[in-house]
Amino acid sequence: MANLTGKIAVVTGGSRGIGAAIAKGLGREGATVIINYNHSHEKAQAVVEEIKTMGGSAIALQADISEAEATKVFIEKVLGDFGKIDILVNNAGITRDKTFKKMSFEEWHKVIDTNLSSAFNTCKIALPSMLEQKYGRIINISSVIGQSGGFGQANYAAAKAGLIGFSKSLALETARGGVTVNCICPGYIATEMVNAMPENVKEAIIAQVPMKKLGAPEEISKGVLFICESEYMTGQCLNLNGGIYML
Ligand code: NDP
């Protein structure tokens, strides 16, 4: 699909779900993949082993990307050890769903820091080297909820909508420098994040999806590979959502 031999790719939150699928997709296409995780060391290591079994190259690195200083140490280590970052996938994310009335300040800030500020934290350190080498692919995993809003998701929707605005702005600033910045907006994808929802909520969601099914994490991985290959796409959202929200 895309020949990524020689490319260095960082995937935040690559230990599980969509991030793990993205990491494997990039590894399969020849990129050396740095799999970031926060708590799931064994799962991240399992993704590394899977990529190695496919003949690829990968390592796992722990960092809480909601923390600016920890992210700086993480990205600087990658730049120090590998010399460059070609592909940066800001995928790590969490939900803390509550209606606005019940949502605490802590739940607001935790979701904003993990889903939105994290992308600022990684890009702040990785972008200068991308601009220097006149090549970079920054892919931010937003969500259909950032486009449509979501009941009980004021924090998550704000973070994901913020990622879209962040990406468009950064895309304008980097367009002449060989760096593209795009979002993927997944609909409902079958991962632990969605499986954690009560069964009746999940059934109601599937009923609303025109395709009447959840998406597979591999669909998002295919989107990442498409963006990696594209020379002329920047500041865009790739909507992979089974038709649940049509822009
Ligand atoms: P999962 O809950 O399955 O996985 C989340 C990943 O993010 C894990 O690898 C986790 O690492 C990592 N992570 C969370 N917090 C941090 C942190 N502070 N620092 C580093 N890593 C962290 O989520 P999904 O795979 O479902 O979602 C991936 C992305 O896709 C998220 O941004 C999510 O918002 C988005 N998305 C998901 C949809 C879905 O339907 N699943 C729909 C639309 C968007 P660890 O295991 O180590 O904690």
Explain what this protein looks like in three dimensions.
By secondary structure, the protein is of the alpha/beta class. The protein has one domain (8-240): NAD(P)-binding Rossmann-like Domain (Rossmann fold, 3-Layer(aba) Sandwich), CATH 3.40.50. The chain is built from nine helices and seven strands. The chain has helices spanning 17-28, 41-53, 68-82, 105-133, 145-148, 154-174, 192-195, 199-208, 217-229, and strands at residues 8-11, 32-37, 57-62, 87-90, 136-141, 179-186, 237-240. A seven-stranded parallel β-sheet has the order 3-2-1-4-5-6-7, with helices on both faces. Helix 1 crosses helix 9 and helix 4 (105-133) runs parallel beside helix 6. The two termini are 27 Å apart. The model has no long low-confidence stretch (mean pLDDT 97). Bound molecules: NADPH dihydro-nicotinamide-adenine-dinucleotide phosphate (NDP). NADPH dihydro-nicotinamide-adenine-dinucleotide phosphate (NDP) is lined by residues 12-13, 15-19, 36-40, 64-66, 91-94, 114-115, 141, 143, 186, 188-189, 191-194. NADPH dihydro-nicotinamide-adenine-dinucleotide phosphate is lined by residues 12-13, 15-19, 36-40, 64-66, 91-94, 114-115, 141, 143, 186, 188-189, 191-194.
